[in-house]
Design goal:
Helix content is 76%, strand content 0%. By secondary structure, the chain is an all-alpha fold. The radius of gyration is 17 Å and the shape is elongated.
Amino acid sequence: MNNSFTAEHSNDTQQTPAWSLTVLLTGAACAVLRFGDVWSWWTLLWAPLLATAVGFMVHEWRVLARNHWRMRIIEWLLLTVAHLGCVAAVALILGL
């Protein structure tokens, strides 16, 4: 009998979402956008930061869905801050 599926499933449920790195990356991208120019050589810094932050957001949403939406309250607050920061960064890029 092959128990590899059970082992893989139990490893997936052990992983919990942690939004702190996403908040850090989004904050760094917003700081670069705030203190630098949007369409200059600063693009080489904020574009990868923002792309990495969005990638981490996608990963954390997948982990959150696997955990049946269970997180501590601080993680929910970090989730909100990360998404607001991402919206602010996109607004700065678009000039809104």
